[in-house]
Amino acid sequence: MDPVLIGRWQFGITTVYHFWMVPLTLGLGLLVAILQTMYHRTGNEMWLRATKFWGKLYLINFIMGVATGIVQEFQFGMAWSEYSRFVGDVFGAPLAMEALIAFFLESTFLGLWIFGWGRLNRKVHLGVLWAAVIGSWISAYFIIVANSWMQHPVGVEIIDGRPQMVDVGAVLMNNTAWAAYTHTLAGSVAVGGAFLLGIAWYHLWRRRVDGIDTIDEKTGKVIVGSAPEVPGRDEKDHTVWYKSLRIGAWAAVIAFVFVAITGDIQAKLMYEQQPMKMASAEGACHDGHEFSVLTIGNLASNQCDDVTPVIEIPGLLSFLANGDFDTEVPGVNTLIPEYQEKYGTTLPEGEMYGAYSGQEVDYQPLMIVTYWGFRLMIGFGVLGAAAAVYALIVTRKGTVPRSKFLSRLALWGIAAPFIANSAGWVFTEMGRQPFVVAPNPDPSGVDGVFLYTAAAISPSVSAAEMLFSLIALTLIYGVLMVFELKLIMVYSRGGVVSAMPEIDRANYKPTVDKSDDDVLSFAY
Amino acid sequence: MDLLPTIWFILIAVLWLGYLFLEGFDLGVGMLLKGFSRDEKERRVLLNTIGPVWDGNEVWLLTAGGATFAAFPMWYASLFSALYLPLTLALLALILRAVAIEYRGKGHTEAWRNGWTWCLAGGSALAAFCVGAMLALTTTGLPLNENGDNIGGAFAWVNIYAIIGGLGVVGFCLLHGLLFISLKTDGEVRFRARALAAKLAPVFLLPLVAWVIIVQFMHGGLIGWGLIVVAAVLAVVMWLQIRKDAEKSAFFAQALFLAVGVTAVFLAIYPKVLPSTVDDAFSLTVSNASSSGYTLTVMLIVAIVFVPIVLAYQIWSYSVFAKRLKTEHIPPAHQVPVAIRSHHQ
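Structure tokens for the assembled complex are given below, as produced in the milestone run.
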């Protein structure tokens, strides 16, 4: 068993999993804060209902992000001690800043928000939610600063064989970090938007199928009804879902525009900073300027001469990389000799390389992953955005069509931006291999700062220990995913009443005991 | 010239102190959900005493970990990789416990609630034990080679010190949880917590005191012994106060006891941060394990600006939730309906 491989699987599984919760936390958090701000400004109870309903789902998801985030803080030292020693002087700083500046803010103020209903005054209660959301957005910044330093090491000098931070400003203002940060945030807002869109669509559809809302045959406009026997299904309920749907769809569309702009900036940086990643994203052997829409052959063999592009768009690759239509983007065959000349053909001999010591280096990332990761990211991103545009058009008369197929599609569509997010991260992380800290040929990177993944693992941790933690974490994560999805489905199906028992006036008994002035408005 | 690393050593000690003081009662309350509370209402009272604050408290652990990485990467790398198995267990425990707090009340079957109660109680106990074992081992030492790597195998951490330290933190958390409950609740739960604390305080603190004394014998000096005397006096004061039903002063004395005890431990091992049991020359110290002066300075500025801000808003959050909880304050559990017409006809 190879501890490096097991360690990589563990890092990949735990991080991709963590990043299913995080974009929803970032995106939905912003949208809930906007909904509560609307409530605060208008005093309309409809906004309160929306805040409480989406806020409940936000919390069900939030906790999973918190729980799986602890692993991230610990596993660098546990499984990747040589990495931690090598980069600690520069990489630990953003992690510590994240905890101190962002995590405290986020967790303390979210606790205040959850339990602060009816206890804090309304303005303060809105403020604590914004503080929590801003905290989560700041945390995303610091962790991406840390990650971007691995993609594009800046602000350091090599002293005694290790990079030492000499310019914290350069680390914090790393162009790679800002491009990745804005890209990630935009992607997260798309996740939040699709989430609102899908679940709100389901409720509008449910109201139509249940015969509550009908369509005026002459004008095509919706006639909103109510169903007193179903908790919460009054006229206002329609507005909650309709507004949620529109806000979600708009958020997804606007987010997509930012995703595209920031993604374009990232591609241009990647062309300068990590040309090999760009080449393998294309499955391109030779220099060229065509973007491959479909490449066939055996991508899995990782031999770029085994693959043949069948559909290509001339000039698009040059545009992605350099903003024109005729730049020759270097292919894998051009880059490998360059890398070999700069960084050697074999890994150094030494204990820290373990079984990899002296082995030949394969500078080409796994092409099947980079090629498809890149395309899944773009494909699902575009799909989600197109669906959101369609939703905006088709719902403009006040409700959704009575089609079961479309309502199912809206729910499944929630997955699209999640897949795009995961695929993008898998692409950018796998595309950096065989390096954990990627060397940058670009003058803006610091020369000679790089680390092979094979040298990053903890020498004292056996493959068996890694396998144990990999299996244990994967099993627990799997079980918890089932619980999270189940709760999200149960609370979604229940509609607003699931987060606001008090609007079900027939069945709601506000207090059991009047001996004290205040029963908690929320309790675990 | 070791001024900056020394300042950071003190800051790391402060972070661990903050963690033990704050999450100490969260973990204690979590454990007490099994065995101490008698019915569902009581369990919910206990859970809601920590409900608004537990997550903010846990960030002290993340900050201690992150700050160790930033300020002493060699310490972070050697300690965390040498304790691979116990930290894996701690992570599993912390994950289950965190999710349990949020999800427990969101299902309505007995099995659902009971399962999560076990996750909370067991997760809290296991997390407390593993953190205690880690703190003990970083003071008593691990078999490290010249690179700082553990050469004792996957179970090198299993020794008497780890067990004493683990039990020390478990015992401390249990007592701390009882004192916290007596301070934050009212009615029967409050009185029972107070009575149990008064009865068992010395038992709960025994392993922790043993760890502090062992570390003194291994590395300590005269000042350390002085501090231990002070800590012992404070523990006795705490015990006398809770026996007199003086909850606030007991909790205050407990806090001071912890502060003096932690100080004694960290002072004893200074300037080491992680001794090697193979060869003292391989021991990690504040100077050979620390980051560069530049990084330490940057992080010090960040800490000077943000630690007071964090303390201010955390104190504010405690003041918002200062009221004592009673079983009467707990709203009835809410069954989530299904908003579909055919279900209601």
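Chain B touches chain A through 90 residues (CB under 8 Å). The radius of gyration of chain B is 21 Å. Further analysis is deferred to the final report.
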